[in-house]
UniProtKB/TrEMBL annotation:
<feature type="domain" description="HTH cro/C1-type">
    <location>
        <begin position="13"/>
        <end position="62"/>
    </location>
</feature>
<dbReference type="InterPro" id="IPR001387">
    <property type="entry name" value="Cro/C1-type_HTH"/>
</dbReference>
<dbReference type="Pfam" id="PF13443">
    <property type="entry name" value="HTH_26"/>
</dbReference>
<dbReference type="InterPro" id="IPR010982">
    <property type="entry name" value="Lambda_DNA-bd_dom_sf"/>
</dbReference>
<protein>
    <recommendedName>
        <fullName>HTH cro/C1-type domain-containing protein</fullName>
    </recommendedName>
</protein>
<dbReference type="GO" id="GO:0003677">
    <property type="term" value="F:DNA binding"/>
</dbReference>
């Protein structure tokens, strides 16, 4: 299967909306949607780092290998 993005699960646990997260990340809601729906082919480490900072989590909470 490959890499699975569990961003929606982490967002639900932290009770943060897509709109709020995209604003805090500085990316468009469309790009966040691509990431959330496993359509992204890559993610920048700077974006992953900022996600972890905002959501107060570890990269392994967001990304999973199956």
């Amino acid at each position: 299967m490959g890499i699975i993005v569990n961003l929606d699960v982490v967002m639900a646990k932290r009770k943060i909306s897509s709109t709020e997260l995209s604003q805090k990340l500085g990316i468009t809601p469309a790009n966040l949607s691509i990431l959330k729906n496993n359509k992204a082919k890559a993610i920048r480490f700077s974006t992953l780092e900022k996600l972890c900072e905002i959501l107060e989590c570890q990269p392994g909470d967001i990304l999973e290998y199956k």
